[in-house]
Structure formats: C-alpha cells, structure tokens
Amino acid sequence: MHLLTVFSHPFTDRYPAAVMEAFHEPFRRAGHTIDVLDLHREGFDPRFTEADHAHFWGGPIPDGIAEMHRRVEAADRLAFVYPVYWWGMPAMMKGWIERVFTGGWAYQYGDGVDDRGKQPLNALLPSIPTVLIGVAGSKQRTYDKYGYREAMRTQIDVGISAYCGIDDVESHLIYDVEGDHNAPRREAGLVQARGIAEAFIAPDRVARTAKADHLAARQEQSSSL
Ligand SMILES: Cc1cc2nc3c(=O)[nH]c(=O)nc-3n(C[C@H](O)[C@H](O)[C@H](O)COP(=O)(O)O)c2cc1C
Question: What is the pTM of this model?
C-alpha cells in the first residue's frame, strides 16, 4: 500500500502530530509506504488565486497543482489528519481541497467546463479508501448535542469526498484533548488512532459507501417525521 496523508497543523510537536504518528505506526510495521503532505512545512498556499479561478473556467492548470494531483494519483490509500477548527477542517486544508480537487480532474459536469450548470455531475476520482481523523478540543456530548459530527460528515465525507468519487470514506473524531486533566484522553486517542489504522489496512475491511449511507439516513429521518 502507498498512503498519502494530508496533515495540517502549525507545529510538529503538538498532539495532532502525535495522532498522525500513531496512525502511521501500523502502516510502517506492515511495510507500507507513506507520503506525508504536511501543508505547513511544505509552505502550501491555500489561497484560491486568479489562476485557480481561471482554471475553474477552463484555463491552464496553476503552478504546483499538477504535482499535487500526481501525489494523490500515486496513493492507493488517503488520510487527512487535522485539528478541528470551527467544526470543520482548518482553512489550510480546506484551501488545499479547493485548489487541488479541480474540475476536469476530481469532478466534471457533462463533457467539461462548458457544461457547468447544464449537465449532470461526473465524479472523476477512483474510490481510494480514505480516512479522516479530526482532533477535537470539545467533548463528544457537545458534538452530539448540536449535530456537529453529522454536519462535518455531510460536508466533508459526502460533499467533498464522495462528490468526487471517493465513496469509500470513513471519518473519526478524537474528542476532548485539551488540558492537563485530559492527558489520559490524549493517550486513549493515540490508541484510537492506531486502531483506526489497523482496521483500515486489514484485508477483511469492508469498503464504505458514504453517499448511499447518507441518503438512506436522510430518508429514514424524513419518514420518521
Ligand atoms: C481556531 C481554532 C478553532 C477551534 N475550533 C474548534 C471546534 O470547532 N471544535 C473543537 O472541538 N475544537 C476546536 N478547537 C480546538 C482544537 O481542535 C484543539 O485545541 C486541538 O486539536 C488540540 O491540539 P493543539 O492544542 O496541540 O493544537 C479550535 C482551536 C482553534 C485554534
């Protein structure tokens, strides 16, 4: 297996980096290769520029983006590890998605840009098994109370990943990691991250079907009203 991990955090010696390392341990033990795309260390510019906008409407691919495409294409497993900021991924990572998951590569309407707004969506990416791990300062009960987890799944798993064809996506949160009193939680979070990886690389892992599951859950919800 060749894993591409997209990671976003300003520091490499903070807890989210430890989570990424724990997630990688089972991959390394099993002899798999890992490409860490550390957005801060690589100096990725997350700003959607004029060149990105021109490409969106059919212009040439901006500098550096084709190289990102090649790194995704080289992977047969994808991971995103990030601290939760404002109930979603950090702006740095969102900017990477905005700039790298481009029309004509990740998705396309009809035959191309001229069919935007006219023809149905075609997802263009293969369903590379993908895992998302968000590190959360807040407690699970806060997420449950307000439905933040479902909101994140809807937006990220379905609205980004499955939208582009990566339907085999699973997402996880490690909750309540801040403060000295939560040291045992942080330890448990590292165990959780290793367990996520072990299950993710297991030969008997069952592929996820994020879009169908999401639609079925919505159907069930509306029929119970
Ligand atoms: C700008 C910002 C926004 C945050 N928003 C959330 C949030 O919406 N939900 C949450 O659970 N934690 C949130 N947090 C807490 C971080 O997720 C948490 O502090 C981080 O994962 C812990 O790692 P660190 O302190 O080593 O960066 C936020 C932190 C920052 C800096």
Answer: 0.97
pLDDT 10s digits, 70-111? 999 999 999 999 999 999 999 999 999 999 999 999 999 999
Name all residues whose Cβ lies below 6 A of ligand 1.
14-16, 83-87, 135-138, 177-178
Find the 34 Cα to ligand 1 centroid distance in Å: 26
Question: What phi, psi does 57 have (nearest 5°)?
Answer: -100, 25
* Residue pLDDT, tens place only, 119-178: 999 999 999 999 999 999 999 999 999 999 999 999 999 999 999 999 999 999 999 999
Quote the radius of gyration of the chain (alpha carbons, Å): 18
Measured distance CA(115)–CA(179) in Å, rounded: 51
CA dist., res. 150 & res. 219, Å (int):
15
Structural domains in the chain? Answer: 2-223 (3.40.50.360)
Q: How far is the CA of 112 from the centre of ligand 1 (A)?
A: 38
Written as six digits, the tokens of 65 are 């983006």
Please give the helix or strand (H or E) that residue 82 lies within, else none. strand 77-83
DSSP per residue over 85-144, as a string? SSSS--HHHHHHHHHHS-BTTTEEETTSGGGTTTS-EEE-S----EEEEEE-SS-HHHHH
